[in-house]
Predict the structure.
Amino acid sequence: MAEKKYPIRTCVACRREFNKKELLRIVRSNTGEIFIDESGKANGRGAYFCGRKECFAKMVKSKALDRALKESVPDDVYSAIGEVVLERGK
Ligand SMILES: [Zn+2]
C-alpha cells in the first residue's frame, strides 16, 4: 500500500475523502464557540466539509455538521459556510 503524502479527511456530508487542504474546517472550540477555522489549526473538535453546493444542501438538511460537532450549529455559521460555497462556485 502506498504511503499517503498528505493528510486525508472526510467530508461530513458526502463522506468522501479529500486532501485536508481542499476542505473547509469548522471547529467547536473548548468554550463552545462554533466557527470556520481558516487556519486549520484551531483547538477544539473539528469537522470537514468539501464545499460543494449539493453537499451544503445535504449538510443543512441532514444536520450532519451538528452531529459531527455534537452541538447545534447556529444559523450564522451556516450562512458563513454558504458564502464560502458560493465563492468557490463548485
Ligand atoms: Zn462533501
Observations:
- The mean pLDDT is 93.
- The beta strands are 8-10, 17-19, 24-28, 34-36, 45-49.
